[in-house]
Structure formats: C-alpha cells, structure tokens
Specification:
By secondary structure, the protein is an all-alpha fold. The chain has 4 helices and no strands. The two termini are 18 Å apart.
C-alpha cells in the first residue's frame, strides 16, 4: 500500500477520534484502531514513514503511531 494512502487513513482515523474530549483517550483510540485493524506490514510502513519525518501526518495520528509497539 502506498504511504500516501496510509497517511490519509491514519489522518481519517485521527479526525474521528479528535472529537474525544480527552486527548490521551483520542491518541489511545487511534493507536488501538491501528493495532487491531491494520496489517503488521502497514504498521511497519507508517512507523517508518513517521521515523523519516512523517510528512502529511496530523498531530494526533503522529502521537498515536509513535505510541505503537515496535514491530520486527
């Protein structure tokens, strides 16, 4: 999957959880969604994109992705 698609998907998830009044809950919700529904390859790819600067990722998505456990 392209990085652009993953960024768009992560930001869409972030927009959904942005309505959560508690920022920590929003970040946890995004991270939980990505952990549950994204393939490990997708998670590695978006984590690599964030490590390379994370161009295009919104702040909530960045924080959620940074909180994900590292995959080998």
């Amino acid at each position: 999957m392209s990085v652009e698609s993953l960024v768009r998907m992560a930001n869409d998830i972030g927009h959904f959880f942005a309505a959560e009044p508690n920022r920590a809950d929003a970040i946890a919700g995004i991270a939980n969604h990505i952990s549950k529904f994204w393939d490990p390859r997708m998670r590695r790819q978006i984590a690599g994109h964030l490590a390379a600067g994370g161009e295009g990722l919104d702040e909530l998505a960045r924080e959620a992705i940074a909180s994900l456990p590292r995959l080998q």
